[in-house]
């Protein structure tokens, strides 16, 4: 079987108003500086709540998906449609990886649709017409599914944030230190991950070539 070609090492899914000029923006900058080609979508330029063909292609050409689940993520039907497409795509392809980041939200609230996630879904239910209730169930299923994937729980303190970003900068220099992508993926998805191991294994998973990028 021929190997699929990738245009992006990483794809960031996030709620712009929550993290674009903070956590996600800083993460994107660090990843780019370390030579990790990352797709970041400009939600502000999107029209309506449906993802475009170009965005679908970007998803299908990416290796790793970081889903930044923040307080207002579920209030955006666009984000929920994007999440659904990502999960449907990764379910059919075993050479990609999803890593959720629970940014100042409780994973159990995402899983059980409580707090801001429950409020957002309730608002969507009010706004959707009776013929679109199936979409609401699809969104609920996607949130439950992503909450069950081992990821990173970002606590509301600056120390955690600084150490997480430091891990990205330091451990990206280890790119290529592991040879078995499947071993990395198996362990990354099967256990709770602390910051250091998450970034180390994520960057090792990115190694599809056998050498560091020349930058």
Question: Mind explaining what this structure looks like?
Answer:
The chain is α/β, with parallel strands linked by helices. It has 10 helices and 5 strands, in the order βααβαβαβαααβααα. Strands 2-1-3-4-5 form a 5-stranded parallel beta sheet, sandwiched between helices.
CATH overall fold name: Rossmann fold
Number of domains: 1
End-to-end Cα distance, whole Å, is: 31 Å
Gyration radius from CA atoms, angstroms? 17 Å
Shape category:
globular
Give the name of the CATH architecture: 3-Layer(aba) Sandwich
Q: Please outline the major beta sheet.
A: 5 strands, parallel
* Backbone structural class: alpha/beta
Task: Summarize the amount of helix as a percent range.
Answer: 40-55%
Low-confidence stretches: 169-197, 203-215
CATH class descriptor:
Alpha Beta
Order of SSEs: EHHEHEHEHHHEHHH
**Number of helical regions:** 10
